[in-house]
Fold this protein.
Amino acid sequence: MNYASFLIRSAIFDFSRSKAKTLLTSLGILIGVLSVVLLIAFGLGLKKYIQNQFESLGTNNLRLVPGKIINSGGGFRASPGSLGGISFDEKDVVSLSRISDLDLVVPVFTRSQNVSSDAKTEFSDIYHTTADVFPALNLNVTDGDLFTKEEVEKRSKVVVIGPKLAEKLFGSAEAAVGRTIKIEKVAFKVSGVLDSKGGGFGGPDLDSFVYLPYKTGYVFNTDKKFVAMIIKAKSDTDLGLVKQEITEVLIKRYKEDQFSVIEQTEILDAISSIFNIMNTVLVAIAAISLVVGGIGIMNIMYVTVTERTREIGIRRAIGARKIDILAHFLVESVILALFGGVMGLILAYLIVLAIQTLFPAYINIQSVLLALGVSSFIGILFGVFPAKKAADLSPIDAIRYE
Amino acid sequence: MIKLSEIWKEYELDGDVVFTALKNINLEINDGEFVGIMGASGSGKSTLMHVIGLLDKPSRGNVFLDGRDISKLDDNETSTLRNEYVGFVFQQFNLLNKLTVLENVLLPTVYARKKLGYDSNEKAMSLLTRFGLTDKVNSYPNKISGGQQQRVAIARALVMNPRLVLADEPTGNLDSKTGEEIIKLFGELNKEEKITIAIVTHEPNIAARTKRIIKIKDGEIIK
C-alpha cells in the first residue's frame, strides 16, 4: 500500500463513517469560500462590464473639460477652479479642428430637462452636439436616421434618442421614429433611435440620452458655450503627443489650470482602482468567515484526537512514528478544508451561472486556485495544533486510554 | 538478544512522591526463548514489558539489543525498532474496528521503513490461514469472537517477522478453553518457528506452560 494513498484513504474512510459531522465541519469553509469567490466574481464582472462600456464608446478618444483635474494616485480630484470655471465656444472648435492629428472635434453642452411625448414625461440628459458625436462615440441607429451636418447648420428641430427613452415615451423604438417630443414646450421631430449601449450600473444611463443639434439647442443654450469636447484622434497617433498639441492651442486663450485633456483610459483606470479597493475590502471581510471555518475544523480535530487516543496508541505500538501520526491528522484536516472549499466553489459557480443573465459575474482560474490554496492552507494552519497534540501523546498512555 | 542492565523506572506522583515501578532490573532474554513474566497486578510486570518492547523508556539503566544500547534512541528510531523487532499482543486485543481483519494484520507493514523481503499480503494471508481465519479475512474485528480477535492480533504481531513477540495477559479477556488454545498457539510458534516469545501473566498455570519463568514482585525480580 502506497503511504500517501493509505493516509488519504483512511481519512476518507473515517469521514464516510460520520458524514453529518464531516459536512457540518466543512460548512464554515464552504461559506467562507463561497462568499470570497462570489465577491471576486462580482467585482470581476463589474470591472469587465465597465471596460466594455468604455470600449464601446470608441477608442482614441480624449475629453476636454474645464478646470484642472489632478490625477493623484489613481483617483481624480477636481481643483477648486473646475466648478464654475471656463466654458468653450465655437472658436475653440475651429482652432482645435486645425490640428492635423485630430479626426473629430465634438463640442458638447449638456442639460437635464423634462422630455415629453403626448402621453408621458421623462427627465432626461440632453446632449447639444454636432453630427460627429455619432462616429466619435460609435453610435448607430436601429430605426430612422441620425441627424446630419446640414440639419445642424439649418437649426432643424430634430433629435436622436436612446432606445430606453424611446420605449418609455412611445412604447417601442419603431414607434418613436417620426413622432414629436417636446423639450420645454419646443417641439422636435424624432429622426432616429440609437442602438443600446447599456449603462445604469452606477454610470450614466446612455440609453436614455437625447442628442440635439447644438445650433438648434442655442434656444436653450443662449450663451452658446460648451461644457466639454469629445476629441477623437486619428488612429495610430500618440495620444500623449496629441494632448500636448491640444494644450498648445488652448494655452493661447486660457490659463494652463483652466482646462484638462483626459484620456479615456485614465478615467477607466480611476474607476478600476476605486472598484479594486472596494472589492479588496469586501473580500477581506468575507475572508474572516474562512478563519471562523478554520477554527471550527480545529475544534473538531481536537475532539477527534481525544476520541481516537487509543487508536493512536495502537498505531504507535506497532511502529508509527510521531510524524506518521501528525501526517494522519494533518491529512484529515486538509481534506476537510479542501472538501469545504471545493463545495463552496461549486456552489459559487452554480450561483454565478444562475445570475449570469442579470449580472455579468464570472469566476476566473485565479479565484479557483485561490480558493483551493486558501482552503488547504487553512487545513494545515488549523490542523497542525490538534495533529501535534496527537503525535505528542505518549504511546503507553494512549494505548491505556479508555 | 535483549539485555536489561540496572533498569529503574520511577513515576512522579502528586508533588514530591515518587513511585518506583522497577528497581534495578537485570535480565537477559535469548533468541528462541519462551519466557513467562509472572507477578501480581501492580508488581511492575507490564512496565517491564513496555521497557523491553520500547514502548516506554527506563528512568535509569540501559537496554541492549544485540549488544547495542537502544535506551537512548530518539522517537523515530525507537518507533522503527518497535515496528521491526517487536510484535505486541495485548489483553484488550487492540485491533482497529474500522479496519478489516486483513487490514489490521497489514497495518504494521504500512509503517515499515525497510523494504520487506516478502509480499506482505501473502504473508498476512498465510498467517490468517494458519490460524484458521481464512473466512474472516474481510470481517471486522467487532464481528468475530474474542479468541479469533486475539489470533488476528497475533497475526499482526508476526507480519513483520519480529525478533520478539511480547504478550501482555493475552488470555485475560478469554474463557479458559480459548485461553488454552492461544497459549498452545504461542507454544507452537516458539517450537516450530523458533520465535522468541515473552508472556506477561499473573496466572501460574499459564506461566507454567513457558520454558522459563521470571517472577517479579514490587518492581524487583525475585526469581
The longest strand of chain A covers residues 102-116.
